[in-house]
Amino acid sequence: SGTFIHGNYWGADSVFGRSNISHGCIGLKDAQGGGDPARDGAWFYSQSLIGDVVIVKNSKDRTIAPDNGLNGWNMSWADWQAGSAAH
Q1: Which of 13, 58, 67, 68 has the fewest Cβ atoms within 10 angstroms?
Q2: For 65-76, what is the mean pLDDT?
Q3: How far apart are CA 64 and CA 54, in angstroms?
Q4: Phi first, then psi: what are they for 9, rounded to 5°?
Protein backbone atom coordinates (compact mmCIF):
# COMPACT_ATOMS: atom_id res chain seq x y z
CA SER A 1 0.00 0.00 0.00
CA GLY A 2 1.03 3.59 -0.27
CA THR A 3 2.35 6.12 -2.70
CA PHE A 4 6.08 6.01 -3.37
CA ILE A 5 8.75 7.70 -5.45
CA HIS A 6 10.79 5.30 -7.56
CA GLY A 7 12.97 5.14 -10.62
CA ASN A 8 11.32 4.18 -13.89
CA TYR A 9 13.56 2.95 -16.72
CA TRP A 10 10.79 1.46 -18.87
CA GLY A 11 8.84 4.68 -19.61
CA ALA A 12 9.72 6.83 -22.60
CA ASP A 13 11.44 10.08 -21.63
CA SER A 14 8.58 12.04 -23.25
CA VAL A 15 5.98 10.90 -20.68
CA PHE A 16 7.61 12.22 -17.50
CA GLY A 17 5.83 15.29 -16.21
CA ARG A 18 3.28 15.08 -19.03
CA SER A 19 1.30 11.84 -18.71
CA ASN A 20 -0.30 9.85 -15.93
CA ILE A 21 1.34 6.47 -16.47
CA SER A 22 1.41 5.27 -12.88
CA HIS A 23 -0.96 3.59 -10.48
CA GLY A 24 -0.34 6.26 -7.87
CA CYS A 25 3.42 6.38 -7.51
CA ILE A 26 5.75 9.12 -8.69
CA GLY A 27 8.09 7.69 -11.31
CA LEU A 28 11.41 9.39 -12.08
CA LYS A 29 13.45 8.87 -15.23
CA ASP A 30 16.07 6.28 -14.42
CA ALA A 31 18.44 3.75 -15.94
CA GLN A 32 17.87 0.03 -15.45
CA GLY A 33 19.70 -0.89 -12.26
CA GLY A 34 19.82 2.78 -11.20
CA GLY A 35 22.87 4.79 -10.39
CA ASP A 36 23.15 6.81 -13.63
CA PRO A 37 23.87 10.35 -12.36
CA ALA A 38 22.47 11.81 -15.58
CA ARG A 39 18.97 10.52 -14.72
CA ASP A 40 16.44 12.14 -12.38
CA GLY A 41 16.02 9.01 -10.26
CA ALA A 42 19.70 8.88 -9.27
CA TRP A 43 19.77 12.63 -8.59
CA PHE A 44 16.68 12.46 -6.37
CA TYR A 45 18.01 9.60 -4.25
CA SER A 46 21.44 11.22 -3.84
CA GLN A 47 19.86 14.53 -2.73
CA SER A 48 17.02 13.38 -0.45
CA LEU A 49 16.52 11.75 2.94
CA ILE A 50 13.73 9.58 4.32
CA GLY A 51 11.10 11.94 5.67
CA ASP A 52 11.69 14.76 3.18
CA VAL A 53 8.46 16.43 2.15
CA VAL A 54 7.66 16.09 -1.55
CA ILE A 55 5.38 18.58 -3.29
CA VAL A 56 4.01 17.65 -6.70
CA LYS A 57 3.15 20.88 -8.51
CA ASN A 58 0.25 21.24 -10.95
CA SER A 59 -1.38 18.00 -9.82
CA LYS A 60 -5.13 17.87 -9.36
CA ASP A 61 -4.81 14.98 -6.89
CA ARG A 62 -5.49 15.46 -3.19
CA THR A 63 -2.78 15.62 -0.55
CA ILE A 64 -1.71 12.14 0.53
CA ALA A 65 -2.31 11.18 4.16
CA PRO A 66 0.89 10.75 6.22
CA ASP A 67 -0.06 7.14 7.03
CA ASN A 68 -0.47 6.15 3.36
CA GLY A 69 1.74 3.07 3.16
CA LEU A 70 4.57 1.62 5.17
CA ASN A 71 7.31 4.19 5.18
CA GLY A 72 9.63 6.22 7.35
CA TRP A 73 6.75 8.10 8.95
CA ASN A 74 4.86 5.20 10.47
CA MET A 75 7.30 2.36 11.08
CA SER A 76 10.46 2.33 13.17
CA TRP A 77 13.71 1.13 11.59
CA ALA A 78 13.77 -1.89 13.92
CA ASP A 79 10.20 -2.85 12.94
CA TRP A 80 11.01 -2.42 9.24
CA GLN A 81 14.14 -4.57 9.55
CA ALA A 82 12.21 -7.27 11.44
CA GLY A 83 9.52 -7.31 8.73
CA SER A 84 12.09 -7.39 5.89
CA ALA A 85 13.95 -10.31 7.48
CA ALA A 86 10.72 -12.34 7.50
CA HIS A 87 10.42 -12.15 3.70
Answers
A1: 58
A2: 64
A3: 10
A4: -95, -15
